[in-house]
Hints:
- Chains A, B: GO terms for molecular function: homoserine dehydrogenase activity; NADP binding.
- 2 copies of one chain form a homodimer.
- Chain A has 14 helices and 17 strands.
Amino acid sequence: xxxxxxxxxxxxxxxxxxxxxxxxxxxxxxxxxxxxxxxxxxxxxxxxxxxxxxxxxxxxxxxxxxxxxxxxxxxxxxxxxxxxxxxxxxxxxxxxxxxxxxxxxxxxxxxxxxxxxxxxxxxxxxxxxxxxxxxxxxxxxxxxxxxxxxxxxxxxxxxxxxxxxxxxxxxxxxxxxxxxxxxxxxxxxxxxxxxxxxxxxxxxxxxxxxxxxxxxxxxxxxxxxxxxxxxxxxxxxxxxxxxxxxxxxxxxxxxxxxxxxxxxxxxxxxxxxxxxxxxxxxxxxxxxxxxxxxxxxxxxxxxxxxxxxxxxxxxxxxxxxxxxxxxxxxxxxxxxxxxxxxxxxxxxxxxxxxxxxxxxxxxxxxxxxxxxxxxxxxxxxxxxxxxxxxxxxxxxxxxxxxxxxxxxxxxxxxxxxxxxxxxxxxxxxxxxxxxxxxx
Amino acid sequence: xxxxxxxxxxxxxxxxxxxxxxxxxxxxxxxxxxxxxxxxxxxxxxxxxxxxxxxxxxxxxxxxxxxxxxxxxxxxxxxxxxxxxxxxxxxxxxxxxxxxxxxxxxxxxxxxxxxxxxxxxxxxxxxxxxxxxxxxxxxxxxxxxxxxxxxxxxxxxxxxxxxxxxxxxxxxxxxxxxxxxxxxxxxxxxxxxxxxxxxxxxxxxxxxxxxxxxxxxxxxxxxxxxxxxxxxxxxxxxxxxxxxxxxxxxxxxxxxxxxxxxxxxxxxxxxxxxxxxxxxxxxxxxxxxxxxxxxxxxxxxxxxxxxxxxxxxxxxxxxxxxxxxxxxxxxxxxxxxxxxxxxxxxxxxxxxxxxxxxxxxxxxxxxxxxxxxxxxxxxxxxxxxxxxxxxxxxxxxxxxxxxxxxxxxxxxxxxxxxxxxxxxxxxxxxxxxxxxxxx
Lengths: 439, 439
C-alpha cells in the first residue's frame, strides 16, 4: 500500500468537525477504497480549547491557517474557513504555490479568485477540488468537469439555496407569509440571523458563477449576474402560480444565447409536473442541458455538516487515488489560460414566458388597455384573467394576472412602463419569469 | 502536451458510430480539456462495407474484436459489442491482460464477469470504466465509486429501463392497456421486437447487480435478484394507484437489511409527490441513500446512441487526464479481493407496504373474512375499500383494494394463501409493493 495521504484542515466548524470525525471513524474503509490511509496531520482554527467532540491530539495545531498551508508537511490542504479574501485566500494560494493539492468548500473564494487559483494549481501540478462549494452533496462539479467532457452545454439551472427553497415551500404548504416562514427558518437553523445573503440571491449567484465557468469554459463573472431575491414574493403569487400549474422556486440560471451568456438569479415559475418543481424544503437540485448527453438533473442535500463533509471527502479521495503530479485536471475544465472571456448577454434580451400580476382600479376599459399595451410590444398572451376575492366590491382594486408566451424582457419592461403611465395601477406590478425544462 | 491517447473501438452500432463522430468532430475541445488528443486508431466490427456516416479511413480495421484487443497498439480498448460472453468477454479480458485500459457499456458482461475482470485490471494496473453500463448518461457509477467514498449506503433504487417506464407512463396518460402501449413502444423504437428482456425485468436486474456491488462492496450476485416484470400490470392497477396517491414504476432496489442485502426488481408504487414519481417516459432515475451524504437522486437519459456515447467518452476522458499506471481506482470501489461475499436477504423477509387488489364474489362477510385473515397475520391495514363500476349489480364480482402499513412479505403471502382457501376469490390477486423515499 502507498504512503498515507497527509491532510491539513483549516477551519473546524460544523463541516470541519464532521470531516475529522468521519475520517477517523472510517480509517479502514477509506484505506481499502483509496489504496492508502488518509491521515489528518495538522489543523488550524481560532479557538484551541473549544470542545468539538473529536480527538485532535495527534494533529499539529496551528493558530494560523496561512502558517499551516505554508509550513506543514501535508499532501492536501483542506480549506473550510469561508470568506472570499483574508486567510482563506492567502492560505489556499500559499498551499498551491507549494504544489500542495487543495480541497475547498468555499464558493465565495472561488467566485472571487477561482481563475487565479486554478492558474497557480496548474502551474504547480496541484489539484484544486471544490465539489462542496456548489449544491453541497450533489456531485455537480464532477458531472460538469468529468462526466460531460466533450459535451456542449446549453443551459445549467438549479435550486442552489436551501433557505430560499425552504421558505417558498413553507409558504405554499402552510399558506403563510414570507416573513413568517423566514422566522420559522431562522428558528430551525435553516436561515441566518442576517438572512440577506441567502434571500437576496447572493449565495445562489456565487454558486452560479462557478457553474457558468465550468459549463461554458469561460472566465468567472460573478458581478455580471442579474440578481433578484425572494423577499418580494407574496402568498398571492404562490397561489396564482398554483392555479396556473406552476410552482415558484429561486433559480440560478446560466444559458448560452446568441448574444452571449445569460446569468440570472430570480424567483421563477416552473411547471408543476416538472421534476424540479417537486424539489421541496432545504433540498437542492441542479439541471444540466447538453447536446450529447441530453438533460441531467441531480437532486440532493445542498448544505449541512455531513453532506458537505461527504463532498469534501470525495474530493480528498480522488486525490488519494491519484498519485501526486500524475493528473491533468484543470480546475474549471479547461486550463486557466484557455478559458474564454465571458461575454454577457444583457437581461433586456432575455427571452421567455412571463407571469405578470397587476393591481388595478376597477375602471371600464382597463382590461382592453392592458391587452393593447401588450400587443403594441409584440407580446403574445397565453392567458389574461381577473383574480379577486372581492369581485363584487367595485371600490376594491382588482387583480389582473397575465401569462405571456415567449417574449423579450425589454418588451415586458416597455409594456409595463406604458401601463404605469395610464394611471390605473395600484402599487408595483409583480413580474415573475417562467422557466421550462427542455421538452 | 502529452502524447495522444490511442483508442480502439470494438462494435460500431449506434453507440460506436456516435462515439466516433463525436471524437472526430470535437478533437480540439477534447484535447484542451484532457491535456492530450484522443485518436481512434483501430476499430472492429462485423461488416466493413456498411456506411456508418463516419470516416474510418485512418483507423486500422479488424474483423475480429479479440485480435484488436490483443494486437493493436492502443491505450484504451472500448468495448461496445454487448453480450455477456463470447467476443466481448474474450476481448476485454485480452486487453486487460495486456494492461490496456478498458471502457465498456456492457451491463451483461459486467453482471456475469465483472469481478473477474476487475481482478485482472487491478493486477495489471489497468482501469476498467463502465459508466454507460448502468442508466446510460446518468453518472451513477462515478457517484458511487468516487463521490460517495467513505459513505455507508443503505439503499440504492431506480428506474433503469426506459422501455418499461415509457409503457407505464403511457398506460397512465392515455388510459391504454399494457399490450397497446407495448406495441406503440415497439413502433417508436423504444422496445425490441422481442421485448421480454426489458419487460420481464432482466435488463434492470443486470444493472442493479452492478450497483449493488458498488454500493455495498460485495461480489456481484445477479442470480440472487428477485424478479417480477410489468406484464401483469393492468390499467385498473394504474387507476387504483392514482386514486391512492401513487404511481407505478418498475424499480430495481438494493437494500441493506438485518439479514443481508435485498435485491429486487418489481413494479412498485411510489408516492405521487415524490420526485421519482415524476420521472416519465424513457427517462431513467437512480436514488442513493447513505449515512453521510444523505439522499442523492439523479435523473437523465438511460439509453440512446448519443447519451450512451457521452458516458463512454467521459470514461475515456478520465483515462486521458490520468497517466497510465498512475491511479488506484478499483472497478467496484474496493479491490476485487477485498469485496465481501454477498449475503442474500430472502424476499420472504422483505418489509414494506403492500397494495393488494382482489376480485371477489359478492357474498356477505367477504370484507370481514379478508380483514380477519390480515389480522391473523399481523398485517395492519392503512385502508380497505370496495372499488367497482358496477356496484349495484350483485352478479358482478367486486374489486376490493387493500393498502397495508409496513409488514413482511411472508405475512402477505400467508394471508393471501388463506384468503384463496375461502373460495370467494375470482382470478389471481394482484400484489404490488410500495416503496417510499427516505423521509
